[in-house]
Design goal:
Strand order of the largest sheet of chain B: 9-10-11-14-15-16-17-18
Number of helices of chain A: 20
CATH class of the largest domain in chain A: Alpha Beta
Radius of gyration of chain A: 25 Å
Keywords (chain A): Glycoprotein, Glycosidase, Hydrolase, Signal
Shape of chain A: globular
EC number (chain A): 3.2.1.52
Organism (chain A): Citrus sinensis
Strand content of chain B: 15-25%
CATH superfamily of the largest domain in chain A: Glycosidases
Number of domains of chain A: 2
Catalytic activity (chain A): Hydrolysis of terminal non-reducing N-acetyl-D-hexosamine residues in N-acetyl-beta-D-hexosaminides
Shape of chain B: elongated
Helix content of chain B: 25-40%
Largest interface: A-B, 88 and 88 residues
Family (chain A): Belongs to the glycosyl hydrolase 20 family.
Distance between the termini of chain B: 28 Å
Number of strands of chain B: 18
Strand order of the largest sheet of chain A: 8-9-10-13-14-15-16-17
Oligomer: heterodimer
């Protein structure tokens, strides 16, 4: 990776342990047959490759009074004792019966947790490093972490070391681990189609299994407003898909708490001023161009009313807009303790604002659409910041070709920009402008792409042999992003080391035009796992070569383990490939 | 569409005549608009009155002639009709809803002309369904029990509502498929699917009026089928004891197919794609368990087209002993009159790895002669059991290894095409063979999810390469429902040639599919083909492709399939259904 988020204390720790490793006979970490996903930064298994039984009375000793850590400890204890994972690969040395049995080690009795800063909150940049030592001469393993959140990462790693019936665990194992990027997220759009609370919790649970730490909840958009807000109950009552497709304050609380129990922050996004058609059901007066056909036949591309069906933008010139909007923000801030607030601001479409008479007269008096947006941002951004929140916007707010604000009104101290267009180019534009960036490049990280367009009556399909648009899978961001495409993307590509430090991390995104609960798991997993590893420990080996080759086998194994944990991840290879390691490889440069 | 035998055509003309005589205002039904949707769209569905609905009586019953499979289907549909309580996402806009329980519909009366006609290729699936306005009896008339099952499905889709059930009434349906063979292929060798997955798939096929489950049972990766005469093939060649199909499983699947009007067509792929046979009989398989494409060799010397090597050896007499045992067992297990014998992707390098074949070749023999020997030794044996043999097109069209047409008697052979779109379909019918179309550019459901090979250097770059660009797999991109819906399987053929195209099959190869993704990979994309092959993809009057109104109908149908327990993927946000027309493009 071009850059590392390793703090100085971690570097010291790393050097210290590297020295320790060199003294005994050095075991190549790449030769390990222990599969942990995402791959730890450093994992050493003493050369004898010994295994111990996990004692039936195995316990996790955590002497701390910390509700979320306690919840994680009891969850992992149950998982570890009941999972009995059987690696799919029968040739896995872990399961091979032909090798001589290793010298017996005493059954492992306990895992002891040591935490230095128990009260570190789960915020951006929190220390997630941990060390895990499973010795071969004592029945006690140690997990040491700066924070409870790092301990949760270590518990996940430990859980992946345990397998078999009766449960076995490799001993003589040392792990030092620390994420390269602090922001490893997943966006889910719950407006275009609705997902139940159980779906969201299962997703957060799967994220924690992949050591991801940010659930970016794109709650509202033009198609529906599913969030029930105490100060503005009309928005969901009228703007949701129905009473059975809403999130109550209790649902949100449950999700936020569940996130904390899993070391996953829940960042809310209330997209505005665009993508607000659903607000018009309750407040038609604050939304321009609501409920109109998105792109009338007689108009040109630049006169579209919305980027896609579902029109409506908040009207920055109507004072009532801010009254409603501030109620919304105030409620959301109360419901979500997370210090980041995502305010959207993508795809402000000129044609929509231009339908409004007050905006028309503002424009005919020499005003510009960018000024209209600036007015909106000036009225809302300071308010959000005053509530102790850092504001995330989509890059459009600054980089849009037509409607954008001057960078002077977005203080980089309180602003983070999330990029989705033009791959590495826009990432560079954002950090060059002095802003922190979250990378969700549509070319690499959009999980919904490639399943065909969702528009009806689309004449591009009325032909025998596909046109270019059709032949790549038909949707605007096609083709489908394969796990390899995701795994191999370097989110700091082309940046100096200095600039790269402004890239906080990345998020894969599932927009829900063509996704809903029936396809949720298969769209997300294991592709989100590919990003999870690339952002945790990188996508290259010690030689700098991309490690997708060995990643294939590990991801395959991890996919099977996720499935057995109740996550409907899609297969990436026939079972035969897992059973016959190496036989499904390509050894030619191109095929 | 060119397909339609003489009798349905006469009925069609007759029906149209009657309709025009008797009906004052004929409104075309089911074309969207009023929210009464049937998928696949019937050939003729007309309101005899203004669109209206009637109550379905709480004591509604289906009166069916006694027939083992039809009675079972009638019971199943009765239960579905009474318990489904479908709630359309768009409330049907009907002029009139009769809520008087005195005129509620009490009985659907089924009449079948020929009860004994078996479920086989070309069986008459025509039915007429008449639901008079304000009458207590509806009539379903069909030539065969299989046509009656199609009519029951249509009737079930005309019922909705909660708590009271409503049924569209004042409605007349005449229906008959354009293509006789409407199939779905699932590969159970590369990954295993449980019996319930297969049954659910067959059930969903019947919802979509499809009639052939092409079961690609075996391949190089695993041999999941337990055969009484050759038990070792599965014992040693399957993925494990829990990943096998017993003879009882097969019986269950075949019977389930019959109660749903779906034929179960077995494929035992050979002589290629037989690596898994080598676990039990290494001596009859060449190049087994080899690395598929060694680094030092070029593509023409690969041992298989993908990882998983092994071909049956045509020069070893024992090959035929085993294969004939297999065929014997298969024809005992599967009553279906078609037998799919595979014969795709014979890879020269694999046969050349064998020493007896090497000496055969060095004595002037050719690989094509080897294949002819294999086909000449097996096809007559299969035909002897009164089976029509289906082969993949390769057996005739492969550039390197193929047989002469004289080895493939046209009356006993059907070729299934998967390469080169309409071109190969034309080559097959021009050679005088019946064709089943599974063009990979249109009908392969597995494509576009990235390659499954490990260590593939095409991905080691920042900018995706051109192959990564289309979704990365050999047949990428993903085939969207629109691509499938709009494909004309008789494109470029004369009317005479088109008659040789008996239908099509979408195919799910399982390199990157298993039970976790089965439903989302199959549905609703398979429904797209189901409608195109049943009633066509064009508007009857204008000839314009009807994907536009198909979008709304397919969306509604997808939700109904989900509520019937099928994990079909969404094609639009719910908002589009709630706001009809608003998600269209006008450009």
């Amino acid at each position: 990776m071009v850059r590392s988020h390793t703090s100085i204390s971690n570097v010291v720790a790393l050097i210290f342990f590297l020295v320790l490793l060199i003294i005994p006979s050095v075991q190549s970490t790449t030769a390990t047959t222990i599969d942990v996903w995402p791959k730890p930064r450093l994992l050493r298994w003493a050369p004898l490759h010994q295994l111990s039984l996990l004692s039936p009375s195995f316990t996790i000793a955590s002497p701390y009074d910390h509700p979320h850590l306690s919840s994680a400890v009891s969850r992992y204890l149950t998982l570890i004792k009941t999972e009995h994972h059987l690696p799919s690969s029968v040739n896995n040395p872990l399961t091979a019966t032909s090798s001589p049995p290793p010298p017996p080690s005493p059954p492992l009795q306990s895992l002891h947790i040591f935490i230095h800063r128990l009260h570190a909150p789960l915020h951006h940049g929190v220390n997630e490093s941990y060390t895990l030592h499973v010795p071969n001469d004592r029945p006690t393993a140690n997990l040491t972490a700066e924070t409870p959140w790092g301990a949760m990462r270590g518990l996940e790693t430990f859980s992946q070391l345990v397998w078999g019936r009766p449960s076995r665990v490799p001993v003589g194992v040392y792990v030092w681990d620390d994420p390269i990027f602090p922001h490893r997220g997943l966006l889910l759009d719950t407006s275009r189609n609705y997902y139940g609370v159980g779906d969201i919790m299962r997703t957060i649970y799967a994220m924690s299994a992949n050591k991801m730490n940010v659930f970016h909840w794109h709650i509202t958009d033009s198609p529906s407003f599913p969030l029930n807000l105490p100060s503005e109950p009309g928005l969901a009552a009228k703007g949701s898909y129905g009473d059975d497709m809403q999130y109550s304050p209790d649902d949100v609380k449950k999700i936020v708490e569940f996130g904390l129990d899993h070391g996953v922050r829940v960042i809310p996004e209330i997209d505005s001023p665009g993508h607000t058609g659903s607000w018009a059901e309750a407040y038609p007066e604050i939304v321009t161009c609501a409920n109109m056909f998105w792109w009338p036949a007689e108009s040109k591309g630049e006169d579209k009313l919305a980027a896609e069906p579902g029109t409506g933008q908040l009207n920055p010139l109507n004072p009532k807009t801010y009254q409603v909007f501030k109620n919304v923000i105030s409620d959301v801030v109360k419901m979500f303790p997370e210090p980041f607030f995502h305010a959207g601001a993508d795809e402000v479409t000129p044609g929509c604002w231009k339908t409004d008479p007050t905006i028309q007269s503002f424009l005919s008096n020499g005003g510009s659409l960018s000024q209209v947006l600036e007015k909106f941002v000036n009225e809302t951004f300071p308010y959000i910041v005053s509530l102790n929140r850092t504001v995330i916007y989509w890059e459009d707010v600054l980089l849009d070709g037509v409607v954008k604000v001057d960078s002077s009104i977005l203080d980089p101290k309180y602003t983070i920009l999330q990029t989705w267009n033009n791959g590495p180019n826009n990432t560079k534009k954002i950090v060059d402008a002095g802003y922190r960036a979250i990378v969700s490049s549509a070319d690499y990280y959009y999980l919904d792409c490639g399943h065909g367009g969702f528009l009806g009556n689309d004449s591009q399909y009325d032909q025998l042999v596909g046109s270019d648009t059709v032949s790549n899978g038909g949707s605007w961001c096609a083709p489908f992003k394969t796990w390899q495409t995701i795994y191999n993307y370097d989110i700091t590509y082309g940046l100096s080391e200095e600039k790269a430090t402004l890239v906080l991390g990345g998020e894969v995104a599932l927009w829900s035009e063509q996704a809903d609960p029936t396809v949720l798991d298969s769209r997300l997993w294991p592709r989100a796992s590919a990003m999870a590893e690339a952002l945790w420990s990188g996508n290259r080996d010690e030689t700098g070569k991309k490690r997708y080759a060995e990643a294939t086998d590990r991801l395959n194994e991890w996919r099977h383990r996720m499935v057995s944990r109740g996550i409907g991840a899609e297969p990436i290879q026939p079972l035969w490939c897992v059973r016959n390691p190496g036989m499904c490889n390509a050894v030619h440069a191109s095929i | 569409m060119p397909h339609g035998s003489v009798i349905p055509a006469i009925i069609l003309i007759f029906s149209l005549f009657i309709l025009q005589l008797c009906i004052a205002s004929v409104a075309s039904a089911g074309g969207g608009g009023n929210g009464i949707n049937v998928w696949p769209k019937p050939r003729i569905m007309s309101w005899t009155t203004q669109p209206r609905a009637n109550l379905l009586s709480p004591s509604f019953a289906i009166s069916s002639p006694k027939h083992f499979y039809l009675s079972s289907a009638a019971n199943r549909y009765l239960k579905l009709i009474k318990t489904e309580h479908h709630q359309p996402l768009v409330t049907p806009s009907l002029i009139n809803i009769t809520t008087s329980s005195s005129s509620a519909l009490h009985t659907l009366f089924i009449t079948v002309e020929s009860l004994l006609t078996p479920l086989q290729h070309g069986v008459n699936e025509t039915y007429t369904l008449s639901i008079p306005a304000d009458a207590s009896i509806a009539n379903l008339t069909a030539h065969t029990v299989w046509g009656a099952m199609r009519g029951l499905e249509t009737f079930s889709q005309l019922v909705w509502g909660k708590p009271n059930l409503l049924v569209a009434s004042g409605l007349y349906v005449w229906d008959s498929p354009l293509f006789a063979h409407r199939g779905l292929m699932v590969d159970t060798s590369r990954n295993y699917y449980g019996v319930d997955d297969i049954l659910r798939t067959i059930k969903t096929m019947s919802f979509n009026k499809m009639n052939v489950f092409h079961w690609h049972i075996t391949d190089s990766h695993s041999f999941p089928l337990v055969l009484p005469s050759e038990p070792d093939l599965a014992a040693k060649g399957s993925y494990g004891h829990d990943m096998q199909y017993s003879p009882d499983d097969v019986k269950k699947i075949v019977e389930f197919g019959l109660t749903h009007g779906v034929r179960v067509l077995p494929e035992i792929d050979s002589p290629g794609h037989t690596g898994s046979w080598a676990e039990a009989y290494p001596e009859i398989v060449t190049c087994a368990n080899k690395f598929w494409w060694p680094a030092e060799s070029n593509w023409t010397n690969r041992l298989a087209s993908e990882p998983g090597t092994g071909h049956l050896n045509p020069l070893n007499p024992k090959t035929y002993k085993i294969l004939k045992n297999v065929i014997n067992d298969i024809v005992n297990l599967f009553p279906e009159a078609f037998y799919h014998a595979g014969a795709d992707e014979i890879i020269p390098g694999c046969w050349k790895a064998d020493s007896t074949i090497q000496s055969f070749l060095s004595n002037g023999g050719t690989l094509s002669q080897l294949l002819e020997k294999f086909v000449g030794s097996t096809l007559p044996y299969i035909v002897f059991f009164n089976r029509t043999v289906v082969y993949w097109e390769d057996v005739l069209l492969d550039d390197n290894v193929n047989v002469r047409p004289s080895f493939l008697p046209k009356e006993h052979t059907i070729l299934q095409t998967w390469n080169n779109g309409p071109n190969n379909t034309k080559r097959i019918v021009d050679a005088g063979y019946r064709a089943i179309v599974s063009s990979s550019e249109f009908y392969y459901l597995d494509c576009g999810h990235g390659d499954f090979l490990g260590n593939d250097s095409q991905y080691d770059q920042l900018q995706p390469s051109s192959s990564a660009n289309n979704g990365g797999s050999w047949c990428g991109p993903f085939k969207t429902w629109q691509t499938i819906y709009d494909y004309d399987i008789t494109y470029g053929l004369s009317e005479e040639e088109a008659k040789m195209v008996i239908g099509g099959e979408v195919a799910l190869w399982s390199e990157q599919a298993d039970p976790k993704v089965l439903d989302v990979r199959l549905w609703p994309r398979t429904s797209a083909m189901a409608e195109t092959l049943w009633s066509g993809n064009r508007d009857e009057e204008t000839g314009i492709k009807r994907y536009a109104q198909a979008t709304d109908r397919l969306n509604e149908w997808r939700y109904r399939m989900v509520s019937r327990g099928v994990g079909a993927e969404p094609i639009q946000p719910l908002w589009c259904l709630r706001n009809p027309g608003m998600c269209n493009t006008a450009h």
